[in-house]
Specification:
Length: 122
């Protein structure tokens, strides 16, 4: 009987139980211009998926939907800039720790990727 209680406890302590939800500040260098960028992004759990809402310091807005891969502690998101549909792409977030995500992303039809670091705010 004791074994039944230990398994749920171990699963709840597992490093695979990553909570991606939160407000983050992300920094990196733009793939096209190589200029540094900063953006604020909100990841919200929406059932089996996550929603993404991002805004750059220049005012560009991105919206997206993603799914978690628990085996790899990652969240993959398809995102679009509604004002410029050519800015549609994919982002993969990997959890470094409970407050930091590594992000790798690219636009459709690009041959380079961007790396960013996202730190949880507040």
């Amino acid at each position: 009987m004791k074994k039944l209680f230990i398994l749920p406890l171990l699963l709840s302590l597992s490093p695979l139980a990553i909570a991606f939800e939160g407000k983050y500040e992300c920094t990196g260098n733009d793939a096209r211009t190589q200029k540094p960028f900063t953006l604020t992004q909100i990841l919200k759990k929406t059932g089996e998926t996550y929603s993404l809402d991002s805004r750059t310091t220049e005012g560009d807005v991105y919206h997206g939907t993603g799914i978690v891969d628990k085996a790899n502690n990652s969240l993959s998101v398809a995102a679009i800039n509604p004002a410029d549909p050519k800015e549609t792409g994919i982002i993969v977030f990997h959890s470094k720790n409970k407050d930091t995500l590594d992000a790798t992303w690219t636009y459709l039809d690009e041959k380079t990727v961007v790396h960013a670091t996202c730190k949880k705010m507040g």
